[in-house]
């Protein structure tokens, strides 16, 4: 589950909403907060140690940030490192009863721990000993409550603003290709095709290898992740699971909605022209990266990452990618309204188990960590060394940038900026703290400005942009309610089967030599899924979205 966070800004994960707001705002007291406030001197906290799980093999409590946390709170965390499958280990612990005192735990696994009475109800502990946690949740703990009304864990607290500057489009073009074409407008897929085709004609080889037009990776489940993402975004559909939700909140599997196959028809066309890399349907991420790192891939579609960092290291920064957001002509882009709260069902809980020796002391520790100065410590490190304050905003230092570039494998643990999830701090992309500034350094303007290559900066400027987010098509925001984790086992089973059938059909569609037969190829998939109960699943999804809307109105 744990992966190193590769912070090449062009590989940040696409989020489904776009809410660009200013990063500075009034604090809760109504005054402008210009810098990291000095830690208040709390009542003395007695030193104590508690155990906690992690699947990060490099996690430690020896960093300067960890030492400062101990200094401020008296707490030391002893990590119980998970090797192998995370959920399996959590279940083994539950069976044996030897789980740590505090656990980061997935939503479905937490249900098992609740049933076994292995985690504590935190409701009264929070009310009696955690004023800062209460404040962070605006004195409303309903977000944390389960169906029995009890609280079995913490999630990252709500934020007042989301300013996600790491968003980007879904189709990337090499800067060299755009420069060669004179930086033309990129508004349609034909625009992309034209610049790629002209460049391939002029340069059939790059670095001794064959020039590749459009490519990405599609091995195993990545086929659906990459190709469906491209189809969905080109059609303008919001990221609402596998469904399209209409204005009456009726849900339909998006595979057969008007516009969904438009991108696949485009791939069919360029495949016939020799612009599509057919290995995209089967190659692994590593195989794709090899081609990309050689500078031979002119266009990447569907997200999933680029190779700008490697290109820079290979002295091919001129081939760095810029991501564009294209919506099919005549279609409207819809986006899910960004939530100011944690994605319940999609994020991990922080729970205190019945093995805790001193639950009161543990909740006091987390309450201390919910103070603004400690949230800043976890998200930014030390003022002066890790960041400075300029014009009221935190700005990463060149030292921090150098540390990331020179020690990417151990950066998070070495500098002590990998504790946000374990502290239940605001770690969501673009989340802001009560002072209005970014909760995490890697989502800030300063990090983007200092880590974006000069080539990309120049290319962006040709399109009137400073960040990749500036190139996004503005969509219509819609609130679909809280639906994460609501799917039934029957829906999950159908989804798995539907994706498998979709995966069998897509190659046939793209490689079909007679364009007049494309619709019938896709109609065959529709018939197969109807026979598997698609209409029933659509109805079940409709009920989930309509119920979510009712809940939101309460």
Automatic annotation (TrEMBL):
Signal peptide segment: 1-23
Keyword Signal among record annotations: yes
SUPFAM superfamilies, sorted: Periplasmic binding protein-like II
Keywords for this protein: Signal
InterPro entries assigned: Bact_solute-bd_prot1
Keyword Membrane appears in the UniProt entry: no
Name of this chain's protein: ABC transporter substrate-binding protein
Organism this protein belongs to: Paenibacillus flagellatus
């Amino acid at each position: 589950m744990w992966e190193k966070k590769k912070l090449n800004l062009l590989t940040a994960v696409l989020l489904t909403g776009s809410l660009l707001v200013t990063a500075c705002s009034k604090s809760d007291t109504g005054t402008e907060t210009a810098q990291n406030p000095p830690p208040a001197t709390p009542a003395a906290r007695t030193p104590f140690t508690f155990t906690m799980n992690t699947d990060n093999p490099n996690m430690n409590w020896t960093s300067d940030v960890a030492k400062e946390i101990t200094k401020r709170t008296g707490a030391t965390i002893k990590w119980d490192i998970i090797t192998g499958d995370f959920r399996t280990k959590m279940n083994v612990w539950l069976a044996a009863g030897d789980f740590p005192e505090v656990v980061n735990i997935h939503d479905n696994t937490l249900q098992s721990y609740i049933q076994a009475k292995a985690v504590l109800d935190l409701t009264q502990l929070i009310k009696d000993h955690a004023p800062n946690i209460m404040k962070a949740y605006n004195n409303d703990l309903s977000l944390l409550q389960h169906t029995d009304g009890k609280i079995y864990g913490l999630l990252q607290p709500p934020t007042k603003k989301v300013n996600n500057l790491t968003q980007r489009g879904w189709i990337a073009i090499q800067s060299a290709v755009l420069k060669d074409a004179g930086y033309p407008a990129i508004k349609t897929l034909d625009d992309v095709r034209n610049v790629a085709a002209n460049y391939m004609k002029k340069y059939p080889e790059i670095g001794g290898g064959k020039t590749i037009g459009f490519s990405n990776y599609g091995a195993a489940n990545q086929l659906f992740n990459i190709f469906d993402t491209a189809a969905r975004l080109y059609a303008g559909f919001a990221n609402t699971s596998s469904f399209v939700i209409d204005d009456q909140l009726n849900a339909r599997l998006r595979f057969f909605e008007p516009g969904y196959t438009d991108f696949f028809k485009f791939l069919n066309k360029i495949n016939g022209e020799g612009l599509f890399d057919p290995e995209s349907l089967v190659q692994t991420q590593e195989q794709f990266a090899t081609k990309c790192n050689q500078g031979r891939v002119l266009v990447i579609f569907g997200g999933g990452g680029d190779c700008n960092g490697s290109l820079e290291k290979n002295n091919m920064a001129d081939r760095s990618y810029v991501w564009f957001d294209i919506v099919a002509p005549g279609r409207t882009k819809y986006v899910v309204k960004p939530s100011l709260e944690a994605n319940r069902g999609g994020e991990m809980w922080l729970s205190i188990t019945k093995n805790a020796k001193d639950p009161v002391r543990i909740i006091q520790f987390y309450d201390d960590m919910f103070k603004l100065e400690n949230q800043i410590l976890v998200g930014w490190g030390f003022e002066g060394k890790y960041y400075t304050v300029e014009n009221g905003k935190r700005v990463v230092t060149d030292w921090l940038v150098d540390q990331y570039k020179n020690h990417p494998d151990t950066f998070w643990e070495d500098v002590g900026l990998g504790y946000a999830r374990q502290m239940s701090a605001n770690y969501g992309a673009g989340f802001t703290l009560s002072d209005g500034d970014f909760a995490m350094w890697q989502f800030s303007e300063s990090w983007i400005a200092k880590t974006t290559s000069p080539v990309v900066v120049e290319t962006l400027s040709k399109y009137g942009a400073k960040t990749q987010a500036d190139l996004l098509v503005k969509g219509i925001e819609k609130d679909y309610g809280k639906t994460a984790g609501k799917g039934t086992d029957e829906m999950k089973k159908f989804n798995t089967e539907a994706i498998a059938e979709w995966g069998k059909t897509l190659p046939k569609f793209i490689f079909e030599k007679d364009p007049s037969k494309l619709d019938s190829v896709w109609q065959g998939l529709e018939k197969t899924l109807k026979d598997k109960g698609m209409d029933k699943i659509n109805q079940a999804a409709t009920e989930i979205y309509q119920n979510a809307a009712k809940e939101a109105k309460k």
